[in-house]
Specification:
The complex is a heterodimer of chains A (348) and B (677). Chain A is of the alpha/beta class and 348 residues long. Chain A has 15 helices and nine strands. The termini of chain A are far apart.
Chain lengths: 348, 677
């Protein structure tokens, strides 16, 4: 049985071989040219660093790489910049999805040319190392929107306990116990998301003597899940959250009023003496670029320095992406076409 | 016959009498050592002394800081790291453009032909269908990005791993010196070294490939070495007696005979490499990992699951076509036609494959089949989200009797996790060191005891004691839960072919599916805190537990089982008294693998609220506190070494006990035989 099937299998191979010999001969030249063009497009579109390095220096229009960090605001800025750079300055832009912390070694090496939304609260060490000391990264000025970290509760909690709108409402152990979970025991639970984000919550709880226990959810995704879960179940939840964030438009959250920011409080934060007992200061989002960008593509450098968006503008584009499900590139294109005045101000 | 059975009563009698003094002696020495350590410890005091501090955190931070500031002008960077990074970048770019030039029909044709060559029609069909599945899910382009990265990573890993494995297989000294490095590489969480790799080799593919190599080389080395060592002495003796030189012996005897092992090594490298895809996206590689992260970021289960499934498909496709085993021996026995032997020759075969793939690619180009047809794609994100919502609505609460996952979660926290943590953290550090030393000593002699004690003192010197105890308590709970699920399922699978058939694909998927994918559903079901982490570890760790238990039971030889049944044992008795004891070694290996896997997802568990050492290593990446990450990572390695060696000794201990009994019987039989002429 086997002996009879074997020749047919061999014949099939032979047929395939004969076919290819004919075709390969006439197709090989075309194939070669095809490889080279695909190679170069892959180098510029999918590739990251190589395109930036190999591009001629100083020439206006040298391709650049912009970092996109994993949140909508960052995608908004980078896509708007890409549309403007490509249409007005003829500069090819590659967007690179990357973690915000890995962005800095990339800027340092020149593999990434710029990042357009940095939250200063989380990157004090990077600013000190790369911008101030090594000077391999430069500050490109403020982006525009101000961000604010704070304590939040689902708005529905206020219906029965209006006193929880301010921190003083949490002083009563019985009220605070509304927020108790298995992890926090008898105390109320205070939930923190990503442990790498700036947090004075433990100090605030201790210094204001609140009957709360600080619990870490581990990641932003875990925090958001806990918030959504609290909303579905109608259970109270106290957590650290911030503006702007896409979830703010989907779930009704209220910021709990903490004591006003004072100079003494900020001094305590700077000295890291554990005495922080007030609200979070406002975060002024800023832009940063590789020090190599100014010589590599001065026009792009100038444009990115001037690029600014207001909170409203950023939210408008973010709503198109998160709300309407539009791809970020299309949303940015539509917004740039609808707002020529804003864009022209960056180019002047 | 009468003579042969006669000694048995005496030998069992001997065993019935002897264990007590024997066991007492085995327990007494460790107990004494334990008391001695506690005595010394209480003299030192309840706080870990400062002279024990290894200052790992500040030292590592200083090195990292220096590297960041001065690395780019250092010769090591300009002459070694940067060229390596550039070479990797070049390789991945070209691999990707090759895949893009082939277009989807060409890639599928290549998959099918390689599969046909290595594993026949079955492997070819599986490879093609599964890989096409990635396109049907709507991720063809990103699958190619991931595939390019993976192919380069796997090739580099094999180029390093197999030679090292051969060396380790031939030399005991090499094997011993490599063991510690391999252990560390395998258990050290990726988060610890991801950022340093970015600094050294550059963002994106270079750092990702190096990270994959670090993670995937250990199994390649281990399995290759094992294969080389398993080659029977008689085969090498035959080689030597025919005058083989040692390179000939290696190439013509050892390697061909170790082929199956090496293929298993290739399979493991592929699985490990695909396990890293999501981490690679963190540092800026495109592809499926990025899609998973985006889904996770928006807490969208379906959007994370679909690319996760594509990763599983790609891994399975590559695995099936590279490790397909065609029954070669049968083929070579038959007379071959000249044409056929020509085709069987590797060079001809390669030309044929390359040629036909080029034809297909050219045809695809002419027909304009550039993109995977969108009309074929199926969106599974929405149904997955619906299913997740349904599970959430129905299982979170309101389930009769047990209440639901939410109350189960609270139960675990209050009754297991918190008491275990309080117990371990509440005990003075030297008491824990003493107990661990004693357990090690009792399980595997003074060497193991000393090793275990030293590892725990090491954890103390890293200044992460409380966190380590927190993690240890969670690991113990997770391992217990995993085994409670895995061993019964394994037994069931061993006894029912249907169960095994149903479980096998599920286990395949569970093992390759990135843990990131089930983070969100797990938090949804189990309140945020330590339980989701434990559950995620359990999901990740049970597949090998089930597999090894089933394998162990199936490998129990039939004669003893038949003997038990013929003596009137019920199937239950036969299982408990015959099969399980004889499968002890395999079940202990299952315990061992479960522990190692639970420890390897400690970091992922930390992302959903487990805290402990895992969180320390996350800080290494997200707060750039590399020293903190390294200290946490080293502590995880030390914990893993202790738990691994102790459970391994239980496995070999079980073997030894069985062997000892068998040997004692054989000896007594021989004395009788000698006595009766």
């Amino acid at each position: 049985m086997k002996a009879t099937t074997r020749p047919t299998r061999a014949a099939r191979w032979l047929l395939a071989g004969a076919l290819l010999l004919g075709a390969a001969a006439c197709g090989s030249d075309e194939k070669k040219s095809d490889t080279t063009t695909a190679g170069t497009t892959a180098g510029t579109t999918a590739g990251t660093a190589a395109s930036g390095d190999t591009a001629a220096t100083g020439e206006a229009g040298a391709g650049i790489v912009l970092a996109v960090n994993p949140w909508t605001g960052s995608a908004v800025n980078a896509n708007v910049a890409k549309v403007v750079l490509e249409s007005k300055l003829d500069t090819e832009v590659t967007l690179l999805d990357i973690d915000e912390n890995a962005t800095w070694p990339g800027l340092d090496a020149g593999d990434i040319d710029a990042v357009l939304e940095v939250w200063p609260s989380g990157h004090a060490a990077d600013v000190a190392t790369y911008i101030d000391e090594k000077k391999s990264v430069v500050n490109l000025g403020l982006l525009g929107p101000d961000a604010k970290i704070g304590w939040y509760i689902p708005t529905s909690v206020l219906a029965d306990n209006p006193e929880l709108a301010t921190w003083e409402g949490f002083k009563d152990p019985d009220t605070a116990a509304l927020f108790a979970t298995a992890e926090s025991g008898d105390l109320g639970q205070f939930l923190m998301g990503d442990p790498s984000y700036v947090s004075y919550d433990e100090q605030i709880i201790a210094n204001l003597e609140l009957p709360l226990k600080f619990v870490v959810a581990g990641s932003e995704a875990a925090l958001i899940t806990a918030i959504q879960q609290a909303e579905t179940d109608g259970t109270p939840l106290l957590m650290q959250f911030w503006q702007p964030h896409w979830l703010q438009s989907k779930v009704a959250l209220t910021e709990v009023k903490l004591p006003d920011v004072t100079d003494a409080c900020l001094a305590s934060a700077a000295a890291a003496d554990g005495g922080f007992a007030c609200d979070y200061p406002i975060d002024n989002l800023f832009k940063a670029a590789s020090a190599k960008l100014e010589t590599k593509n001065p026009a792009a450098f100038a444009l990115l320095s001037k690029l600014q968006l207001t909170t409203e503008q950023q939210n408008e584009i973010a709503a198109m992406i998160d709300g309407d499900g539009m791809p970020a590139a299309e949303a940015a294109k539509a917004w740039v076409e609808a707002n020529p005045d804003v864009v022209n101000a960056w180019l002047s | 016959m009468a003579i042969a059975t006669a000694p048995l009563p005496t030998s069992t009698k001997r065993h019935a009498v002897s264990p007590w003094p024997d066991r007492l002696r085995r327990m007494a020495v460790p107990a004494l050592v334990m008391t001695a350590i506690i005595a010394v410890g209480s003299a030192i005091g309840p706080d870990i002394p400062t002279w024990l501090d290894a200052h790992v955190k500040p030292k590592v931070d200083e090195i990292y800081r220096w590297t960041v500031l001065h690395g780019d002008t250092n010769w090591l960077f300009t002459n070694v790291f940067t060229p390596i990074g550039d070479a990797i970048k070049w390789a991945t770019d070209h691999m990707l453009s090759l895949l893009q030039v082939l277009r989807w029909p060409g890639v599928l044709a290549l998959t099918g032909l390689i599969g046909y060559r290595t594993g026949g029609t079955r492997a070819a069909l599986t490879g093609v269908i599964v890989l096409a599945g990635c396109g049907i899910l709507g991720f063809w382009d990103n699958t190619m990005e991931t595939l390019a990265l993976m192919l380069v990573s796997v090739m580099v890993s094999l180029l390093i791993g197999i030679p090292l494995g051969i060396w380790a297989g031939l030399s005991d000294r090499a094997e011993k010196s490599m063991r510690g490095v391999l252990d560390t590489a395998q258990v050290m969480p990726l988060y610890v070294y991801l950022l340093p790799l970015v600094v050294a080799f550059g963002i994106g593919e270079p750092a990702a490939v190096i990270a994959t190599v670090i993670f995937a080389v250990p199994p390649a080395v281990r399995i290759t070495s094992l294969g080389i060592r398993a080659v029977a002495g008689t085969s090498t003796e035959v080689g030597t007696s025919f005058g083989c030189t040692s390179p000939q012996l290696l190439l013509k005897v050892r390697l061909p005979l170790a082929r199956r092992s090496i293929l298993l090594g290739v399979n493991q490298v592929i699985m490990m490499a695909f396990g890293i895809v999501v981490y690679a996206a963190i540092i800026g590689t495109a592809g499926l990992g990025r899609d998973v992260l985006n889904g996770l970021q928006k807490v969208n289960v379906g959007n994370a699951f679909a690319p996760g499934l594509a990763i599983v498909f790609a891994a399975i496709a590559i695995d099936r076509i590279t490790t397909g085993e065609r029954s070669r021996s049968a083929a070579s026995d038959e007379p071959q036609s000249r044409l056929q032997s020509l085709i069987e020759r590797p060079a001809t075969c390669a030309i044929l494959i390359v040629g036909s793939v080029m034809v297909v690619a050219l045809a695809a180009k002419l027909l304009g089949a550039d993109e995977f047809p969108t009309s074929w794609t199926v969106d599974i994100a929405a149904p997955v989200n619906d299913a997740a919502k349904w599970v959430n609505d129905n299982f979170r609460s309101g389930v009769p009797i047990i209440g639901g996952t939410a109350s189960f979660s609270d139960f675990i926290v209050i009754n297991l996790l918190t008491p275990a943590r309080d117990l371990l953290q509440g005990a003075a550090w030297y008491v824990v060191v003493a107990i661990v030393t004693a357990i090690g000593w009792a399980s595997g002699g003074w060497r193991l005891g000393a090793l275990c004690g030293a590892c725990f003192v090491g954890i103390a010197s890293l200044r992460v004691w409380d966190l380590a105890m927190d993690t240890l308590s969670q690991v113990l709970v997770a391992v217990t839960l995993s085994l409670l699920i895995a061993i019964p399922l394994g037994i069931w699978a061993a006894r029912s072919a249907t169960v095994e058939r149903i479980l096998r694909p599920l286990l395949d998927v569970a093992q390759v599916m990135p843990a990131f994918v089930y983070l969100v559903p797990v938090i949804f079901l189990f309140n945020v805190g330590r339980v989701p982490g434990v559950i995620a570890s359990v999901i990740y760790a049970i597949p090998p537990g089930i597999r090894l238990t089933a394998l162990g039971l199936q490998q129990v030889p039939y004669p003893p089982r038949e003997a038990a049944l013929s003596f009137g044992a019920t199937p239950g008795q036969e299982l408990v008294k015959v099969q399980l004891p004889l499968a002890t070694r395999s079940i202990m290996l299952a315990v061992n693998q479960t522990i190692i896997l639970v420890l390897s997802v400690v970091v992922v568990a930390a992302l959903i609220g487990a805290g402990g050492l895992g969180l320390e290593t996350v800080y290494g990446l997200t707060k750039k506190e590399i020293g903190r990450g390294v200290a946490g990572g080293l502590a995880i390695v030390l914990l893993a070494v202790v738990l691994d060696r102790i459970t391994q000794s239980w496995g070999t201990g079980a073997d030894r006990r069985i062997n000892r009994r068998a040997w004692a019987q054989r000896r007594s039989r021989r004395t009788i035989e000698n006595a009766t002429p």
